[in-house]
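Notes from hallway chat w/ T.B., transcribed later so I don't forget. T.B. wanted the structure written out for a chain they're using in a teaching module, and asked if we could keep both sequence and structure tokens in one place. Agreed to drop them here.
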Amino acid sequence: MLQPPHQPLQVAAVPSQRIPAREDQAGPWHSEAVCRRDEAGLFFAPSKEPTAARLSREEAAKQVCARCPVMVECREHALIQPEPYGVWGGLTAAERRVVLARRRRRDIELTAASSTGTERIAAAG
């Protein structure tokens, strides 16, 4: 059960600048975000938030994200920007850092495999 933190949550809105418009919609993706309705305070930590309260708030934010129709767009936005704070697309800042590190490793491995394959073709030709 979600227990309220000792301090009131600060309400934060999704920033309107820097967010690219969706190609398949008339408006920007964030106009359809569930978090814009009434729970924006769940997504960003108040200063000096206790760990237990942070974990509880982040879990509640992830539950909101799970039912959001633009979760994937939100997550990609946060990974591309990259957004340093808050829960975006169902991921915390720490979880996004892990995803970015995995993507970098994958890109390096694919580049290395690609160049190795090219060298083998050149040597065989």
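Follow-up for T.B.: The two ends are 66 Å apart (CA to CA). Might be a good example for the class.
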